[in-house]
Amino acid sequence: MNNPSFTAKYLTDVSLTEEAQRYLKVIDQNFDDDFSTQGRGYFSAEDRELIQQRACAQAKELFAKATAPIDGEKLRQVWAEIVTDFHRNSFWGFQPLKHKPVQPLTEEQKTYRELWPYIWVLIQSGIILKTVVYFFGIRASNDPSPENTVYLILALLTSLGTLVFFAWRKHRK
Questions:
Q1: What pLDDT does 153 receive?
Q2: Are residues 14 and 83 both part of a single domain?
Q3: What's the domain count of the chain?
């Protein structure tokens, strides 16, 4: 239930004291924990939105019975009542999923996933394979035995092969 702006989204029209406004920030921070399944599954994004709307509707209904402005103690009582009702009434009928729903990727995550192969090829060809080629090149120049020459050729072919494979894999994009 990753929605840090629950109170800003739903409870802006409620008259609150300064203490209650501070507690509202605590509610925002703990909303996901308050309305979790306690390890019995996950809610879909649609269900989370409906849970937020229902919690807000119940809060407004209970606030309507109180005198304005709502103080911190009344807000704590109302919120505890709503959360308790949610858990006592089997998540208000919302069915938890067995598997965590897939979250859509943010633009930053998409950019990172797109750039990571290029960064890895840079590290691989610029540091790892270059070190391997230098090592076997120095070894082959000090001792020009067939074994060392084969190792050098394998290192060069591996370096070339990984770059060709990367270019072939990315040429379609």
A1: 92
A2: yes
A3: 2
Cα atoms found within 13 Å of the Cα of residue 87, Cβ hemisphere only? 13
Is the residue at 101 inside a domain? no
Contacts of 79 (CB under 8 A, 6+ apart): 23, 27, 34, 59
Residue 78 and residue 16 in one domain: yes
Residue range(s) defining the domain that contains residue 138: 107-170
pLDDT digits (tens, 9 = 90+) for 42-87: 888 788 888 888 888 888 887 777 777 777 788 888 888 888 888 8
Alpha-helix residue ranges (DSSP H) falling in 45-145: 45-64, 72-88, 107-123, 129-142
Q: Let me know: does 20 contact 71? Beta carbons within 8 Å.
A: yes
